[in-house]
Amino acid sequence: MDYPNAHDQIPGAPIRSGIPEHGRIPKYYVVKAHVAALISELGEGGLLPTERDLALRYEVSRETVRQALRELLLEGRLRRRGRGTVVAGPKLEQPLALASYTEGVRRQSRRPGRHLIGLDRFPCPESLAAEVGAEPGEPVWHLERVLLADDERVGLESTYVAVSRVPRLDTDFEPDSSFYAYLRDRVGVSFGEADERIETVLATPREALLIGTPPALPMLLIHRLSRDLAGRPLERVRTLFRGDRFSFTVRLGNQG
Fold this sequence. Notes:
Blueprint: H1 27-42, H2 51-58, H3 62-74, E1 78-81, E2 84-87, E3 92-95, H4 101-106, E4 112-123, H5 126-132, E5 139-149, E6 152-162, H6 169-172, H7 179-187, E7 191-202, H8 205-211, E8 218-228, E9 233-242, E10 246-249
Parallel strand pairs: 3-10
Antiparallel strand pairs: 1-2, 4-5, 5-6, 6-9, 7-8, 8-9
Helix pairs in contact: 1-3, 2-3
């Protein structure tokens, strides 16, 4: 069998299409490659044949087909719809910038939304105080919301902010709107800078239930500590994004 040269690869594709140098390819990977080609033919929203039909088509066991489909589901190329499997649309690209989730989704002609899980007020623990610019024991808000894109659940966001910075959050803020826009337009507070850390995690059973995903689905977790224009701590945010529905982009400049 002839394998493609690295220089013949589509930009961004795995070198040699993921085929190891010894040339021995697992059966499920062969099926995955065939199904990937089928995905391109069907297009977004196209209904995939059943596991039984795919097993007969490629002359493999249904378990081999399941393994191939599991990987394609985790990669976000397929999604479950009812009892069937359909071709997924492109991933949402969220910029790693000091901008809101709302702005990032709208730039891709998608409709952003949020579903309120809870807005709680509690005494600030010592571990959180410096991050939100509060003294231990002072009241802080915890705002938890499910992130939506065209009514699809795609993430879970937890925001912590001192009550002294936004004392009327429970009465003036629309939970399905942008928190950043509220701070800017209603409170008169603008963001100056933020530190972010990204890691890959698995959702807890509660988080998976809220987002509507299997617990085994990898998540992209972003921790953000934001400061206002004066450099004062403003908020701490913990956001889970579905790994099968999101990718992140960043523009790098020459630092000299």
